[in-house]
């Protein structure tokens, strides 16, 4: 079981960057929750942990301590940027990062940017810095800066669900590729029949039952309830009683004839 630690930056009393009607803490929490849902629902053998799943404040040390204690295989700290002029997307590793962290950053950055390019997002490239989340983590760790809150063009993109989906899909794809996760087997979808269309093999019987008043001719493919079954059997019972009562003399004549045959056999 692979363990992934997703850290939604800021939270609670720390909103992070705020501008253009957006708060960083809210955007990154939405991304983090969705990354967890998609990884666990689409891939086998993966468990995703979150630094926070609600709007709460956590010290940086608390975040990395928990990730290290959990024995996570990788860590992704998700943020939005500010003060970047033209805006864009960038990722960070520690300045003295391991080969594994560099490889993870390259995969993650590439997968996310490939999904952001159609929206005209600027690629600010892969970078290294002395950031706590990357420095104090004992596993390969990458910090993503997902567009600039205070750049109007980026903020407008972050308000579009298709851009949010691109960020989510990119994070999921990069993590899955690095950990070599296998997608869950997709079960074939059973084609549901049209309940208003009668099957060929039952067409004659259905027509006869309709003409004789046992069914109303609608929804031939629908499941029959016990109530509907009772109605059909009661109609059959009524018709049988009518048939019997209408042929009383014929039944008596048949009984008389049977008695005569029986007497002749006894002679």
Largest sheet: 6 strands, mixed
The fourth-level CATH homologous superfamily of the largest domain is Zn-dependent exopeptidases
CATH architecture of the largest domain: 3-Layer(aba) Sandwich
**What topology, given as strand order, has the largest sheet?**
4-1-5-8-6-7
CATH class of the largest domain: Alpha Beta
| CATH fold-level topology of the largest domain | Aminopeptidase
Work out the helix count: 9
Please mark out the parts with pLDDT under 50 across 5 or more consecutive residues, or reply none. Answer: none
The percentage helix is 40-55%
Work out the number of β strands.
8
Mean model confidence by pLDDT: 90
What would the principal axes of the Cα set say about the shape? elongated
Distance between the termini: 91 Å
Query: Which strand-content bin applies to the residues?
Result: 15-25%
Please tell me the total number of domains: 2
GO molecular function, one term: N-acetylmuramoyl-L-alanine amidase activity
Enzyme class: hydrolase
Organism: Paenibacillus rhizosphaerae
EC number: 3.5.1.28
């Amino acid at each position: 079981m692979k363990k992934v630690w997703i850290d939604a930056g800021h939270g609670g009393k720390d909103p992070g960057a705020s501008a253009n009607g957006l708060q960083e803490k809210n955007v990154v929490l939405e991304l983090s929750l969705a990354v967890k849902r998609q990884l666990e629902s689409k891939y086998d053998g993966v468990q995703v942990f979150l630094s926070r799943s609600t709007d709460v404040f956590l010290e940086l040390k608390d975040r990395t301590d928990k990730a290290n204690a959990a024995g996570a295989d990788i860590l992704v700290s998700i943020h939005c940027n500010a003060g970047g002029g033209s805006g864009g997307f960038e990722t960070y590793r520690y300045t003295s990062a391991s080969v594994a962290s560099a490889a993870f950053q390259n995969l993650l950055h590439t997968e996310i940017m490939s999904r952001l390019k159609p929206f005209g997002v600027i690629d600010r490239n892969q970078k290294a810095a002395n950031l706590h989340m990357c420095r104090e983590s004992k596993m390969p760790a990458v910090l993503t800066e997902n567009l600039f809150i205070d750049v109007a063009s980026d903020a407008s993109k972050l308000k579009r669900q298709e851009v949010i989906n691109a960020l989510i899909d990119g994070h999921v794809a990069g993590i899955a590729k690095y950990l070599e996760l296998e997608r869950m087997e997709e079960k074939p979808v059973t084609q549901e029949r049209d309940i208003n269309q009668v099957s060929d093999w039952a067409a004659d019987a259905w027509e006869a039952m309709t003409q004789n008043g046992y069914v109303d001719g609608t929804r031939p493919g629908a499941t029959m309830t016990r109530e509907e079954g009772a109605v059909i059997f009661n109609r059959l019972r009524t018709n049988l009683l009518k048939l019997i009562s209408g042929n009383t003399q014929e039944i008596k004549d048949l009984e008389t004839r049977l008695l005569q045959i029986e007497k002749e056999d006894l002679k």
